[in-house]
# Entry
Amino acid sequence: MPGRAAEIEAESRSWILTCSSCGHQRSYWEIGGVRFKAASAGKKVRVGCPACGRKGMHAVEWRPSER
Ligand SMILES: [Zn+2]
# Structure
């Protein structure tokens, strides 16, 4: 039986953030591993981007099939 941590990781990896500055995409798991709530879909969060180095808005998208 999978642990609770693995379950949270799988869910966090399904949340994709897209940088509004350079278009770089990564999962929410990569920036901290804390789950978004379903209500976060379509919203934007302000985080740092490892690709362009800027701290800017990232679009939040739910992609459960992406692993
Ligand atoms: Zn970027």
In short: The chain has a mean pLDDT of 83.
